[in-house]
Amino acid sequence: MVEFLERKLEQQLYLYQSFLKIYEHHSSLLDEILQLENPCQPSFGTRNDLYIEGVVNDSTISLVTNLWEDQTITLRQSQQIWTLGRDRINGIHIDNPYVSRYHAMIRFSEDEQSFYLVDLNSTNGSFINGERVYQPTKLKESDRIRLGTLTFSFFLNTTTKFLPDISVKLLIQSNSEQDADVKTFNYSSPKTRILDEQADDTLDMLHSIGVMNQESPATSISKLLNVEPKSEILDYFLGK
Predict the structure, then answer these.
(1) CA separation for the pair 119, 83 (Å, rounded)
(2) CA distances from 30 to 23, 24, 25, 51, 83 (A)
(3) Strand partners, 62
(4) Strand runs (DSSP E) across 120-223, as ranges?
(5) With contact defined as beta carbons under 8 Å apart, do 113 and 158 qualify?
(6) Residues contacting 33, CB < 8 A, separation 6+
(7) How far is CA 98 from the centre of its chain?
(8) Please, which pLDDT band fits residue 44 given cuts at 50, 70 and 90?
(9) Of the residues 12, 77, 79, 132, which has the fewest C-beta atoms closer than 10 A?
(10) How does residue 42 score in pLDDT terms, banded at 50, 70 and 90?
(11) Nearest to 149 by CA among 50, 20, 68, 64
């Protein structure tokens, strides 16, 4: 009985260590598997904000993605075919060792006005919502795509809405707030003005007793600090 419990404990420990090793290297993939097993289970992996958005705007078809060299970019292709893979010649270059050189493509169908995911005989496969893709598969809003171990979302944008003009009242309010910001930035408090006036009076006094001439205050003060105090200054301040 004791040996049986020890073997069972060893098996559980081995599974736990294997789980940690898998999660360490493929946390997003493991998290997605657990999500598919139990959609109500909250995700405990890091949030994945990678995405591709298919945009259909009149006659202009494009993809918007943040998979392209760590920046968000709009990609247009004359044949409306965007390849994804590890090779830099791809329209969307993916630097991931589990992604094939030419892993998959997203193409747009003019007839159906839809985007399709096509696997290019990749080694580790292409998946949509956990199911492997063996033939061109239509993409829908919020689909989860996985290429190798890289997972991202697909969004579909087929509607453009033109918003009404901003009302004159709001425009005036916006301009007033901007003017208020400028006035606040340039505003001089009464206390500051008093100090400035006192400084001017002091400079006039120093000019009158001959300590400072009409050159710049900074130059005169610099000279004043480099000479012995004159008796006129002492007499003036002692008299005050």
Answers:
(1) 10
(2) 6, 10, 9, 19, 26
(3) 55
(4) 126-128, 131-132, 137-138, 143-147, 150-157
(5) yes
(6) 130
(7) 26
(8) very low
(9) 79
(10) very low
(11) 50
How many angstroms separate the CA atoms of 168 and 170, rounded?
5
> CATH second-level architecture of 51-157?
Sandwich (2.60)
Mind giving me the DSSP string for 209-228? TTSS-SS-HHHHHHHHHTSP
The Cα 33–Cα 24 span in angstroms is: 15
As a whole number of angstroms, the distance between CA 172 and CA 179 comes to 10
Other Cβ atoms closer than 10 A to 39? 7
Closest CA to 106 of 124, 88, 118, 95: 118
Query: Taking the model in full, what pTM does it have?
Result: 0.56
- Are 108 and 115 spatial neighbours (Cβ–Cβ below 8 Å)? yes
Please say whether the beta carbons of 114 and 154 come within 8 A. Answer: no
Q: Tell me, what amino acid is at 214?
A: Q
Residue 130: pLDDT band (50, 70, 90) is very high
